[in-house]
Design brief:
- There is one protein chain.
- This protein is mainly β.
- Helices cover about 5% and strands about 50% of the residues.
- It has one helix and 35 strands.
- The strands form nine sheets. The protein has a four-stranded antiparallel beta sheet with strand order 1-28-27-26, with no helix packed on it. The protein has a four-stranded antiparallel beta sheet with strand order 2-3-4-5, with no helix packed on it.
- It is globular, with a radius of gyration of 22 Å.
- About 45% of the residues are buried.
Length: about 425
Amino acid sequence: MRKGLTFCLMLFCCLYMEAQPQWFTMGQTINNGRIEDICFTDRETGWAVSAGGQIFYTNDGAVTWELQYGNTYYLRSVGFADSQLGFAGTLDNVFLKTENGGADWIDITAQLPIVPSGICGMQWLDDQHFFAVGAWFEPAFLIRSDDRGESWEALDLSMYANALVDVHFISSDTGFVCGKGTNGGIILYTTNGGEDWEELYSTGNPGDFVWKLQFIDEQHVVASVQTFGFESSLPYSNDGGLTWIEKPVPDGNAQGVGFVTPAKGWIGGYNPGFLATENAGDDWEYVPFGGNYNRFQVFDSTFAYAAGHQVYKYVDTAMVVAQSSRETAERRFDPLLAVTPNPAFQQASISFQLPKVNNVDLNLYDSKGALVQRVFNGRLPAGTHRFPIETTRGNGYFLVGLQLNEGLFSVPIVVR
């Protein structure tokens, strides 16, 4: 009897261990560049957009993907109200719409009250109300529709923010946006549909972005912070986003954030792998899996998707078919940012390479993160680019920061 009981307990433990969810790389999308965003309307049906101008569709839980659309645009965001109506945002002044599940995509930019420089984040609150924000490279704006995109309203947020990256409304009037302000990464809050905004959180470090927002439930909210250096923070709220505490994150390139419970979650960016926590961000463990994370979509505590170099799925092992596989960390895009000479005396030159046209924000910061010189802000074509900088502001350590569509890059410079 005791042997039988022991065997049953051992079998239960084995089955329990096997049933624990874990991350898998799903079917290959053959994408040109990072998967910037995903939107699943249910656990099986979803869309993914890539930096290479592609839109992919799956109806089998990301096991296989169909290429629905291809162009030269840098696609950043995608959102669907249902299985038929959806929008896709680019970083190239183009806004796309489909009314047949992605079989056809049309440019509806001319229907908007403004031409959006780029749409970084979007949200369907319900099947009527849609919100979108942009752009990481300025200016800051919100567009919204209360009738499934039949009519539009545009709101200029430049008096509150320099740039916006993500949006989350909890009703048609009450919502949050995040991005960058003059003094650092910020989270803004409105209760009148976006007419007025209150700053609820700021990193206080110029050049930072609050990159993504996630409502785990009605009370618990997390955000990611992209910053210069080796450490950023996890803004964490226990009261629905009204107040925030900061928890250290040992990764300055944090962008995508996803929690499946108030305690368990992951954060990652352009660096290979991601960081995992089991205690609400008090401690982090590096996991060498995947890379280039920008968006997580969570269904419940045992089921989630993530977008990065490919599409990743968090699921019970028993639910994953043979086409899926575990993978190791993946490498990030490298613009070959350099400063010469380094150490520098009176002048130096910044150089970097772009494989295609890009939005560029190039700045020089001092050792405390304060902006010293805004070197360039605008669009540049493919090729090698060089910019002179003056280094006559005193000796010491400085930082060159290069923000591209692909992420944030930096290199230290010593002035003597």
